[in-house]
Amino acid sequence: MATITGAIMSSHVPSIGGAIAKGLQQDPYWKPFFDGFPPAHAWLAKAKPDVAVVFYNDHGLNFFLDKLPTFAVGAAPEYRNADEGWGIPTVRPFNGDPALSWHLIDSLVADEFDITMCQEMLVDHALTLPMALLWPGGGEWPVRIVPIAMNHVQYPLPSPRRSYHLGQAVGRAIEAWDEDARVVVLGTGGLSHQLDGPRAGFINKAFDLMCMDAIVDDPGRLARLSMLELVREAGAQGTELMTWVAARGALTGSVSKIHSNYHIPISNTAAALMVLENRAPPAARVLAA
Fold this sequence. Notes:
The chain is built from 10 helices and 10 strands. By secondary structure, the chain is of the alpha/beta class. It has one domain (3-278): 3-Layer(aba) Sandwich (Protocatechuate 4,5-dioxygenase, Chain B). The strands form 2 sheets. Strands 6-3-7-2-8-1-10-9 form an 8-stranded mixed beta sheet, with helices on both faces. The chain has a two-stranded antiparallel sheet with strand order 4-5. Helix 6 packs parallel to helix 10. 46% of the residues are buried.
């Protein structure tokens, strides 16, 4: 059976791609952010995942406001990136894992999630930048991917509770996959930020740090937030926290925090990284209240 090795949560600010392209990792502005990643690289070298299941939100590259699914699962053999207008270099294509994709799709539909199935799918910076941060160097990607896009762009958005339940359903499906594969789960986005309106530039450090504690020990606390509370405390674009909540929901048993890093600001955004490891065998799941 497949094994979930752990989860990594990371920000995906477009300017990160520009910093990578320009070699600014040691620049004083960027160094505190990039210095957070070597422990994640070390953990990945030990965990040796075969597949990355990635919860992320599309910013208009693959979906737009006229057709925007709440949840979409990629089922393609390959995923390509394209120019999004940020000046970020495109990256090498990612190999998919159609067998796992269709297993997840079947399982999610059986669990009464109405998801969109994508046999062709472009992936944007919300997926490519965390992948480049976790596996730097620009070579061949060492993992296959299954992208799961979540709507954080246009209301109505899925609630934190629904996002947590999605992660739990994905975790159950991965554990039931009859393949000898090691799977890491990624959640990308956030933390607190607002890019427009009267609160443009809003960052809530106290709320971010609470979330980083709760994501380890009490994810149900985050799942019980209302959408109004989340927008008020994290900003309009801070709803990307739900990708973290979904990734945490996919983990089972005893979870240990291996590493975390928090840095502000990057392009008016609170940037964070967290590495969690599954240390116990799968356990029965209890849905968030």
